[in-house]
TrEMBL record:
The keyword Oxidoreductase does not apply. Keywords: Transferase. This is CoA-transferase. It holds the Pfam family CoA_transf_3. Gene3D superfamilies: Crotonobetainyl-coa:carnitine coa-transferase, domain 1 (3.40.50.10540), formyl-coa transferase, domain 3 (3.30.1540.10). One of its GO terms (molecular function) is CoA-transferase activity. It comes from the Bacteria.
């Protein structure tokens, strides 16, 4: 059986991880990806995070992983215009980023103008226009601008903020680029017209490294966090190694108190948050953990249903029993190293097996000899409906962040999304705003719920009752897609596995998003984002070498959501071609293993165990976060700037912008190796220079000179960035209970996009009960009886008055 994207041709004009991962996802889906390179090749071919030597003409392990299944064509920018024109005229999509001479032969705007059938996905730091569009940036400085370097309180107040290691911004940008390319392909299939998808890496990092801080701040009048503090317990030292424990709910905190022998810590009448209670008892808790073995702690935690995991890194993660049983890692067929398997599993759908990466120019002669037919220009009128998923009905049985982030994108792009809750168990994000239950309509005031659920309809059903289960089955019969992210045992208990669901609707797509997968030893373990990050290696590279790792505490959820969307779009294409029902398993852990792939690849290919190193990193030197002279909005000397020098030219620019001081004159510093060797020296001088200057002054001195620099933003100040205002990344959304507030959209600007992405506010609890149940044929009297029996409702905790 052919793969979903077979026959779909993508010309890859990108360099770097983001574009390579985007096109890797498309190639795995069956697309013919033609990687166009200049004679010197993509610089990624010579990349190794551990600086392992790569012989000239060879390709490093990361490129070998990301290049699997693609074809390589070399074009000389001085003479290859005709071949490039021929390739893009016959392609369906182009993925573009600046950085190579061949890519810069033609702009994304010109590609889109010349070839109106093309999906052109342009990846850039800030977007193709706006006041910052041509400013220098690295993944590290984008984290600072986004607020992701602080995240939701990551780190500790006694040190500089700690960025998320592993270049995760590049990886999630690539995943978003693939998802948006696939999404607008759906519309192109409808009317023949392409799209210019102008994708901003900054905006992607906002969505994946921060937790809707602007909406939170402007709806409630306070930021989520005012200081950095480690997650408790988080990653902790046990007697024989590191262990990860988490408390995402009050019940989990109470259970942890009992588990550790301190039930006296439980105070149900306190006004303190779970985080504040845990910090009060942190030292005693850590003392207890240091006396226990990792396996004993995990066995106890699992018995108490407390999220837990071993702490993964490039060396040990491949041997963890769960990942071994699920075959989460495979051998690269060419490079002699280990790599993650696909980030999702799609039943009955053929994904490309692990394939070799091409040698530089390996397919030039083959492609040049072909005479591909140029795609015809669209003939029919342009569809006025600019939303790709119009007409699709989605039942959204998800909660918290990962699942709703996936269905939220579907809703923003036109799908009818029915968000299912019950009065006994509302969506968990309704409960985390810190609104006292004594306040009127407290459950409607969560900024997080509001930010994740615009354009959705709200339905409550207690499917623990027979009436509720019957209505749920009837509703499923009207839907094209069902999405759920319960632990597997919940779906099994209510009899709604794929085999059951497919009997309710021919050709239905069921997207399941368990934390650790549908099988394996950890299948029923609670899986909050931070535990996923800990187990898969995402935490390992975050923080300082003399401390246990900091949990990113953000990326695990939205990364799972965007990977699930990629999988769903492949399943929808398979259904379009065959009419078949499809089960999609998009485990959060599998998605995380893929964006942490570099750790396993470096260790298995070169024997190098990548380590966290504060705010230094492999892609730039110097790279760090430096304190500046400003007093922050909380009255503290806690303002910072991020500086990253990724090239020798940027070093010269930095040296000159500083006034060419004597300490920077050494010739060895003009090379990356020399700067790495003298990083401590450089840090000392840059720290002294920044300490006497305001952040704005530092940015204004360095950025115009071409040095990647950023203020380390508090996340709730994202609306102050002029680039985001220019691109209308935030849209004001009204609400019947809450004040109108800015809501983030998607990290893209579109040539033919809708005027706005947020068309309706997030639903009130059960807001659309009458409408949706009437569509199922229920009378007003029947709906009233359901409400009286507590099967439906509009307030949390409503009790049923009738027997089940």
């Amino acid at each position: 059986m052919s793969a979903p994207l077979s026959g779909y041709t993508v010309v890859d004009l990108s360099t770097g991880i983001a574009g390579a991962y985007c096109t890797r996802i498309l190639a795995d889906g069956g697309a013919d990806v033609i990687k166009v390179e200049s004679p010197g090749g993509d610089p990624l071919r010579q990349w190794s995070a551990s600086a392992a030597p790569i012989a000239p003409g060879d390709s490093g392990a990361l490129f070998t992983f990301l290049g699997g299944g693609k074809r390589s064509v070399v074009i000389d920018p001085d003479s290859g215009t005709a071949l490039l024109d021929r390739l893009v005229a016959a392609a369906d999509a182009v993925v573009w980023s600046a950085g190579s001479a061949v890519a810069e032969m033609i702009s994304p705007e010109e590609l889109h103008r010349r070839h109106p059938h093309l999906i052109v996905t342009a990846i850039s730091p800030f977007g193709l226009d706006g006041p910052w569009h041509d400013r220098a940036a690295t993944e590290f400085t984008l984290q600072a601008w986004s607020g992701g370097a602080i995240g939701i309180g990551r780190g500790s107040q006694d040190r500089a903020p700690a960025h998320v290691g592993g270049q995760v911004g590049e990886w999630v940008t690539g995943a978003y680029a693939a998802a948006m390319t696939q999404a607008f392909r759906v519309r192109a299939l409808r009317d023949g017209y392409g799209e210019l998808i102008d994708l901003s890496a900054l905006e992607t990092q906002i969505l994946c490294l921060t937790y809707y801080p602007v909406t939170y701040f402007q709806m409630l009048g306070r930021p989520w966090r005012t200081e950095r503090r480690p997650t408790v317990p988080g990653v902790a030292e046990a007697a024989d190694g590191l262990v990860a424990l988490g408390c995402g709910t009050a019940q989990q905190w109470h259970d942890l108190c009992v588990m550790s022998g301190h039930s006296e810590w439980i105070d149900e009448d306190t006004s303190l948050t779970i985080t504040e209670q845990a910090n009060l008892h942190a030292e005693e808790l850590y003392t207890w953990l240091r006396d226990q073995n990792v396996d004993d702690i995990r066995d106890l935690a699992s018995a108490f249903r407390i999220p837990n995991a071993p702490v993964g890194n490039g060396e040990n993660v491949t041997a963890m029993d769960h990942f071994v049983e699920r075959a989460a890692f495979v051998d690269n067929p060419h490079g002699g190293f280990t790599q993650p398997a696909h980030p999702y599993r799609i039943g009955g759908v053929s994904l490309r097996p692990p394939s070799p990466a091409p040698a530089l120019g390996e397919h030039t002669a083959e492609v040049t000899a072909q005479t591909p037919t140029a795609r015809p220009e669209p003939q029919q009128p342009c569809d006025r409906d600019r939303l790709p998923f119009s007409g699709m009905r989605v039942l959204d049985m998800t909660t918290f962040w990962a699942g709703p982030s996936c269905t939220h994108i579907l809703g923003m792009l036109g799908a009818e999304v029915i968000h299912l809750e019950s009065t006994a168990r509302p969506d968990g994000t309704r409960l985390i705003a810190g609104i006292p239950a004594s306040e009127e309509l407290w459950w409607e005031r969560s900024p997080i719920f509001s930010a994740l659920n615009t354009n959705k309809k709200g339905l409550t059903l207690d499917f623990q009752t027979e009436q509720g289960r019957d209505l749920l089955r009837r509703l499923i019969g009207t839907c094209d897609v069902v999405v759920e992210n319960f632990t597997p045992r919940v779906i099994d208990q209510i009899g709604l596995d794929f085999e059951a669901v497919r009997t309710m609707r021919d050709g239905i797509i069921m997207l399941r998003m368990p934390g650790f997968g549908l099988d394996g030893p950890w299948r029923d373990n609670p899986a909050f984002a931070y535990i996923i990050e800990d187990a898969t290696g995402l935490s390992w590279l975050t923080g300082f070498p003399d401390r246990t790792p900091f949990e990113p505490y953000a990326v695990g959820d939205p990364n799972a959501g965007v990977h699930a969307l990629n999988a769903l779009l492949l399943a929808l294409e398979h259904h379009r071609r065959t009419g078949e029902a499809v089960l999609v398993e998009a485990a959060m852990a599998d998605a995380a293993l893929n964006i942490a792939a570099e750790q396993v690849i470096e260790f298995s290919a070169y024997g190098a165990l990548l380590q966290r190193d504060g705010n230094r990193g492999p892609a730039a030197a110097p790279q760090n976060i430096y304190r500046c002279a400003d007093i922050d909005e909380f009255g503290r000397a806690d303002s910072w700037v991020a500086i990253a020098v990724a090239t020798d030219a940027q070093w010269i620019a930095l040296r000159d912008a500083l006034g060419a001081p004597d300490w920077a004159a050494a010739g060895a510093l003009t090379t990356r190796a020399g700067r790495v060797a003298q990083h401590d020296l450089i840090d000392g001088h840059l720290a002294a220079w920044c300490a006497t200057r305001a952040g704005d002054e530092i940015v204004e001195s360095l950025w115009p000179a071409g040095v990647p620099v950023a203020k380390v933003m508090q996340p709730h100040r994202q609306t102050e960035l002029p680039q985001l205002r220019h691109r209308r990344f935030f849209e004001f959304v009204g609400h019947p209970v809450n004040p109108a507030a800015p809501h983030s959209t998607l990290p893209i600007a579109l040539s033919r996009g809708p005027a706005e992405l947020h068309r309706t506010a997030a639903p009130l609890l059960g807001e659309h009960n009458d409408e949706l149940l009437t569509q199922l044929g229920l009378s007003p009297e029947e709906i009233r009886a359901l409400r009286e029996d507590g099967v439906i409702g509009s307030e949390p905790g409503a009790r049923r008055t009738a027997a089940r």
